[in-house]
Amino acid sequence: MRFTKMHGLGNDFIVIEAEKSELSPEDYSRTAIKLCDRHFGIGGDGLVIVGKDRELDVFMRIFNPDGSEPEMCGNAIRCVSKFVWERGLVSTTRISVNTLAGPRYPEVILKNGEVEKVRVDMGEPILERSLIPMLGSPGKVVGEELDTTAGRFRITAVSMGNPHCVVFVDEFSSVPVSEWGPVLENHPVFPSRTNVEFAKIEDENTVSMRVWERGAGETLACGTGACATLVASYLNDLTGRRATVRLKGGELIIEWDPDNNHVYMTGEAKEVFTGEVDLRKL
Ligand SMILES: N[C@@H](CCC[C@H](N)C(=O)O)C(=O)O
Fold it and tell me: pLDDT at position 282, please?
């Protein structure tokens, strides 16, 4: 099976074209577990399946290294945009992508004929507790205390199609991401688990962030997590509606438009190599 290795700020994916692979959709989850393994497989933070869609330009499905299927992935959708543009699967720079979270609209930004960046209309953030989803009484979850086995956290919950729990911290040196991350990811108040962002406000235009991803562990970057963090920062009066979000693997520009309530994410996408894998040998 042919594959392409891509990444967005070091959040890396194995990208497969549905029509050209022998995989059937029932195989996607267990194939993700095998291929994403960094020692026994290709290695990646997710398996991405892309193909022609019946209604929109293309569809995208993503599977975490634990085999679970998230609704959306910000870094993957930028990679998918570059992939389908460069392979001629689309003919316009504005692309419509069907995802489990609904349609999303990336635009590839070209420089000297090459994809320099991708700007994605990530849609409206979801703030209503039950839709995150999170248990408890109706309303937004902004700066709310949550007791866990690792102590008490003040959290803001935002869904960008997939669930995020944002915790503001003063500095990262005292944040044991791999200890606190799974405690919050698997807290019973999140029935579908959650991604977890630890965010530090640098100034009103800049936020640094580390992420613990549902089904993947700590990664170098998370696009939906960066969007959720900007929304949470604004809701907590910590930044304006536009900020640079600094992640371990690089930077994203995130904007929350007051006119249409949509969040826009701009950042790079890179292709690293292509290859072939014999699934029978894994
Ligand atoms: N890295 C992603 C998010 C991938 C999905 C996530 N692990 C989940 O389960 O929701 C991004 O860039 O948004």
Answer: 87
Q: ipTM higher than 0.95?
A: yes
The CB of 239 under 6 Å from ligand 1? The reply is no
Domains of the chain: 2-121+268-276 (3.10.310.10), 129-261 (3.10.310.10)
pLDDT of residue 229: 98
* Cα distance between residue 227 and residue 125, in whole Å: 8
* Total Cβ atoms within 10 A of residue 145: 8
The residue contributing the CA closest to ligand 1 atom 2 is 73
User: Which of 80, 132, 214, 266 is the best mutation target for the ligand 1 pocket, counting ligand atoms within 8 Å of the beta carbon and taking the most?
Assistant: 214
User: What is the distance of C-alpha 277 from the center of its chain?
Assistant: 25
Q: How far is the CA of 112 from the centre of ligand 1 (A)?
A: 31
- Pick the closest to residue 158 from 75, 257, 228 (CA basis): 228
Cα 276 from Cα 282, distance rounded (Å)? 12
> Which residue spans within 86-222 are E strands per DSSP?
97-99, 102-111, 114-121, 144-148, 151-159, 163-168, 195-203, 206-213, 217-219
Q: How far is the CA of 45 from the centre of ligand 1 (A)?
A: 9
Instruction: Tell me, in angstroms, the distance from the centre of ligand 1 to residue 193's CA.
Output: 12
CA distance 227 to 164: 10
Provide the pLDDT for residue 21.
93
Q: Are strands 46-52 and 11-17 parallel, antiparallel or unpaired?
A: parallel
**Block means of pLDDT (10 residues each) for the chain, length 282 residues?**
98 97 95 98 98 98 98 98 98 98 98 98 98 98 98 98 98 96 98 98 98 98 98 98 98 98 98 96 88
